[in-house]
Write a structure and sequence with these properties.
- By secondary structure, the chain is of the alpha/beta class.
- It has a single domain, classed as Metallo-beta-lactamase, Chain A.
- The strands form 2 sheets. It has a 6-stranded mixed sheet. Strands 7-8-9-10-11-12 form a 6-stranded mixed sheet.
- Strand 5, helix 4 and strand 6 form a beta-alpha-beta unit.
- The structure holds zinc ion (2 copies).
Length: about 220
Amino acid sequence: MSGSLDIVQLEVGLLENFCEVIGCPVTGEAALVDPAFEVDRLLREASSRNWKITTILLTHTHDDHIAGLDEAAAATAAVVRCHPVEVETARRQAPRVQAVTDGEWIPLGQGRVQAIHTPGHTPGCVCWFAPDPGAVITGDVLFVGSCGGVGYPDSDPHAMVDSLQRKLAVLPESTVVYPGHNYGRTPTSRLAWELANNPAFLRDTVASFCAWKGTPVPGSANS
Ligand SMILES: [Zn+2]
Ligand SMILES: [Zn+2]
């Protein structure tokens, strides 16, 4: 049996970024997700609950998700966890970085979160799934009503469609989606709503997905 985790969502910075503070209400062990901006606010949020940050979880290493990583790592001495292909970038800011494997469970007090590798926006994107209370932190892979860009040099629309359809759409429909940016009609949503309304899920072929995103289909004649 694992215990439930509390999740606090904070909007920080000028790009409508969301960071999360996740904690075990029993032991006080806690994690920061994507400490980008206003790190002092994130740390105050944790200490107001008597939580101790032991882990920093990264969805990916675009600057708007790790701009405050150096400050957060120095203040907490927490271990940073991210996908292997993003480790090098994270190590420029934090001394203790450990790669995660797809499907790996990270204990957090009496609770746990699972790393779900969801490449596409970047090759090392990870969504963090907490089965109890039923939440997934999606970074730039999934927004409320939309999704992150696939036009970056290391983006891959094929991988993105695969990640959405095969890795995220299969989670319990009651899962609450915590996106990386406040770009939607609500700060969070249910996966069931996204599956029924979000073009990122409804455009389930690479061609239709790319047409919606305005991105050339990789490998096509005119890309
Ligand atoms: Zn990004
Ligand atoms: Zn972003």
